[in-house]
Structures are given as C-alpha cells and as structure tokens.
Design a protein that fits this description.
The complex is a heterodimer of chains A (about 260) and B (about 200).
Chain A (H helix, E strand, L loop, with lengths): L1 E5 L10 H25 L5 H22 L9 H5 L6 H21 L4 H24 L11 H19 L6 H23 L3 H12 L2 H12 L1 H4 L3 H22 L8
Helix pairs in contact in A: 1-2, 1-4, 1-5, 1-6, 1-11, 2-4, 4-5, 5-6, 6-7, 6-11, 7-8, 7-9, 7-11, 9-11
Chain B lengths: L3 E6 L8 H9 L10 E9 L2 E9 L18 E3 L5 E3 L9 H5 L6 E3 L3 E3 L5 H4 L6 H5 L5 E5 L6 H8 L3 E2 L11 E4 L17
Parallel strand pairs in B: 1-10
Antiparallel strand pairs in B: 1-8, 2-3, 4-5, 6-7, 9-10
Classes of the chains: A mainly alpha (about 260), B alpha+beta (about 200).
Chain lengths: ~260, ~200
C-alpha cells in the first residue's frame, strides 16, 4: 500500500511543552487541595499553610494555562464561567480549581462557615484531581489515552504532591509515598498490559509508545518501583517518585496525541 | 430543521485537488493547515492495482465528539446540522482538536480553532460550497438529507455502495463516500463498513 497526499491532514501535536507544565502543576494543585481538605476535616494545625500552598499552586497553574493559550489576549477564558458544559472535562477542571481557590482563601483567612468550605473543597479538589485523566480519556480516538488514565493520573497526581510534602519534611507524608508509588506502578503495568494485549490499534499504540519514549517510560516506572527500597533516604525518597510520576504523566500526554486514522 | 450533508463519488474523483485549492482560496485558510486534503492510496500488486483518491475534511457528524468537550460552548451544531465554531468564544484549549477522530481541526494563527464549515457563508446565500462548485468531475453532491429531492439524497439513492469514515466510533458522519473503487470499500477502513 502506498499513500500520498495533496495537502495534509492536521496531524500536528496540539499540546506542547507548556501543557506538560500545566499537567504537572494541576497534579500538584489538585493534590494540595485534597490535602487541605483532609487537613480541614481533621483539624490539622497546619491547615492554613496547606491552604496557602494550594492557592499558590492553583494561581501558578492558571497563569500557565493563560500563557499557553493562543487566545490569551482575547480574554475569552471568561466564557468558561459563563457557559454550562458539564460534559467538558476542561470546564469541570476550571470550576474545580476555581472553587478550590476560593474555599482555600477563606480557610486561610479562617473566616466564614467551616462546613461550607469543607464541602466546597471536597467537590473542588476531587474535580481538580480527576480532571486531567478525564480530559485525556474523553478522547476515544486516541488509543494511548485509555480509561486506565482515569485512575493513573489522580494516583500519580497525589504521589507528586505527597513527594513534595515529604521533601518539605511533613512527617505524615512519609508513610504515604511507598503505597502510592506501588499503586501507581501497578496502574502503569495495567495500562501497558491493556495496550499490549488489546486490539490492533492498541497494539500499534503500544509499539508507538515504546518507539517514542519507551526507555524514558521504563525509567519512570523503575523510579516509582524502587521507592520502598530507598524510603529511608528522605530527599531521594521524595525526588525519585516525583521524577518517576512526572515522566510517566508527561510521556502519556505528549506521545498520546497520536491517532492511527488512515495509517 | 434540516441536515446538510455531502457525498463524494470516489469512482468519479480523479484527485485533481481543485476542491482543496478552492477551499483554501474561498476560506483564506492559512499556510501549513488545511480544511480539505486528498488522500491518494494505491493498493494491490501490478497489474492488479486499485487507486483511491479520497478527499477528507470535517464530516459534520451527527454525534460530533468535538462538541461536548468544548468548555465554552464555542463549538456547536447549527440547526441545519453544520458543526460550527464561534471564534470569539474559543479559548484555544485544543480539546476539540484532540477529540476529532478525523484530524479535521486546526489552530488558526489568530488563536482560535477552525475547520470546514461547508462554506456556511455561501450556503446562507443559497450557493453551494466552493469545493462542490469547482469540482470538474462533479463528484461532490451537497444538500439536505431530509429533502428527498436534494442532490445529496439523490446521489445516495443512486450509489451502488456507500461508506463512512471510522463508523465504529459512532460519530455518525454526514460526509458519505460513494462507490469506493476497492471491493472492500474505503482503503484503511476494512471491516468497518456501516452502510
């Protein structure tokens, strides 16, 4: 079979490196919002600090989103909040981050009804954490964005933020790193197995992933898998899973933009 | 209500790309992106060769996956079934580009997503899309699917075979390929026939 084109289909990558930064920051922001929620519910003494960190991360993420948008000087982003599009993962994510930002602000101020902020944070942080995986899995035409990312992305998102918390010497974080790392490794294996043992398109996608970052993917997997072995070295135990989770997430977003239509 | 659709007779298409040039000119499509392109595929072994010239563009799906993922509602289905974009509401998030199974959408240099709109400005004046008007072999038919006397309805009724692109995805394309030259239908779509 030989294929030629007159003019080309629009197969260029549509998400570039700023999007990868956004996926990293939104994992941190969503994870931080979850931690703030838990801290608020358990009356943790550092809840104000966590709320402040959540706000900073959300603002940084929103700035990244604004910078990467080709429409940033048309300020059309306001339409997200003037529309009702609950089937759109980006709409859900935008509202999740915004609600988390507002609730975190009042938690930091220690003003207003605590029960309301807790409720808003539970909803907002959950949306912010799950939305990146949802934004990928919604595209059934892109075989590398399988439904497994719906679980893999929140897991690695929490691993990312827990690693940072461990790096910042938050005692409670230490005990969560190994379980989260191993759960993430398990989901990555499920993800790869699903591709390798799937249909024709899934197997093509598996080969494509291995050919366009397979070594890096393996490195990410190994970095998360060795966490139980190195957990006694604090800084390394935080940086290694952080790097592993970020590599895996970035590769799935970047390489996953392929679809095999017409190949 | 109407359902505007297009049919392309692949037995008549010679791959001259006049439609692609007309589209580029009519809609001032920027360099490096396209609303319409021709996929020219040859299969078989000499002397048993089959060549398929397949023009591709937005298929104006009945269940367009690009519409529900749009967070601002800028991507929508018009009352006449044309899948359209309102540029001033587009935030350039590319969610619709990701969702399109046909690579039909692109980012316009002015910061909004664009694609084929069946030349809606011409349709509004009662004219045919530029690609239909310019085709020298008259392989394209355009019109309302709900009107049994429209060009597209007549072409569909008269075809010996009708194929869709990626029918397994359930998008319900309203761009129909008629009389594909290969025995199994569209090249690369084997086993996906839904007509």
């Amino acid at each position: 079979m030989m294929t030629e084109f007159y003019a080309l289909p629009n197969t260029e990558h549509f998400w570039h490196w700023p999007t990868l930064i956004h996926f990293f920051l939104v994992a941190m922001a969503g994870g931080a919002a979850v931690i703030t929620t838990i801290a608020l519910l358990t009356k943790h003494p550092k809840v104000r600090t966590y709320a402040l960190v959540t706000m900073v991360l959300i603002v940084l993420d929103l700035i990244t989103l604004w910078i990467e948008s080709p429409a940033r000087f048309r300020f059309t982003h306001v339409w997200i909040f003037l529309s009702f599009a609950p089937a759109a993962p980006i709409w859900l994510g935008a509202w999740g981050l915004s609600v988390s930002l507002v609730a975190s602000f009042f938690v930091w101020l220690q003003k207003g009804p605590r029960a309301l902020w807790a409720t808003l944070l539970i909803i907002g942080s959950a949306l912010a954490l799950v939305y990146p995986g949802l934004a990928l899995a919604a595209n059934i035409n892109r075989p590398l964005w399988t439904p497994v990312v719906l679980i893999l992305f929140p897991l690695t998102g929490m691993l990312t933020v827990i690693s940072i918390a461990h790096l910042l010497k938050q005692d409670w974080a230490k005990r969560w790193i190994a379980p989260l790392s191993l759960a993430s490794v398990a989901m990555v294996i499920v993800y790869l197995a699903g591709l390798a043992m799937g249909g024709t398109e899934a197997r093509m996608a598996f080969d494509y992933l291995m050919g366009h970052g397979g070594l890096l993917f393996a490195l990410g997997l190994v970095l998360m898998a060795i966490v139980p072995v190195i957990r006694r070295v604090p800084v390394v135990a935080a940086l290694v899973p952080l790097a592993g989770a970020t590599i895996i997430r970035s590769l799935i977003v970047e390489v996953g933009q392929i679809q095999f239509f017409g190949f | 209500m109407s359902r505007m659709a297009m049919a392309i007779d692949l037995a008549a298409c010679v791959g001259c790309a006049a439609c692609s040039v007309a589209c580029k000119h009519e809609n001032e499509v920027p360099i490096g992106v396209n609303r319409l392109w021709i996929r020219n595929t040859t299969i078989g072994t000499f002397p048993n060769l089959v060549t398929e010239f397949r023009p591709e563009q937005c298929l104006h799906c009945e269940n367009p996956p690009c519409v529900p993922v749009c967070p601002t509602g800028c991507c929508f289905v018009r009352a006449d079934g044309i899948v359209d974009i309102e540029p001033m509401k587009c935030i350039g998030c590319s969610a619709c580009i990701a969702a399109c199974p046909y690579d039909a959408r692109y980012m316009h240099p002015d910061g909004y997503v664009s694609k084929c709109d069946f030349c809606k400005h011409r349709v509004a004046k009662g004219e045919l899309p530029a690609c239909v008007t310019t085709c020298p072999t008259l392989c394209r038919s355009f019109g309302d699917l709900d009107d049994p006397n429209s060009d597209v309805s007549i072409a569909l009724r008269g075809a010996r075979r009708v194929d869709l692109l990626r029918p397994g995805l359930g998008t319900g394309p309203k761009l129909y390929y008629l009389n594909a030259p290969a025995k199994f239908g569209l090249v690369g779509e084997e086993g996906q026939r839904s007509s």
